[in-house]
Amino acid sequence: MSLISLVLLTRRAGALDDLLPCQREDPELWFSEQPADLEQAKMHCRRCPVRGFCLSGAVERHEPYGVWGGEIFHHGAITAHKKARGRPRAKVA
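Below the sequence we write its predicted structure tokens.
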């Protein structure tokens, strides 16, 4: 996404009557380490009017982390779900 595209996206978002979900809700949700927070951010993105632009821009910029356009980015790639940090639980026999 070029600088011009980012400017147009910003203008379009600014022309809306209401704040975007990422402006209205806790911004920490979009960059949390907690999988449940990231899923909540994805839900907030569902009705966002600039969701497609946000996602395509994040892909172009190779965003390393966070929720962009309703998708979770982890190490620059889109992933369906983020796993919790730490070791997996041991299976009890």
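The two ends are 52 Å apart (CA to CA).
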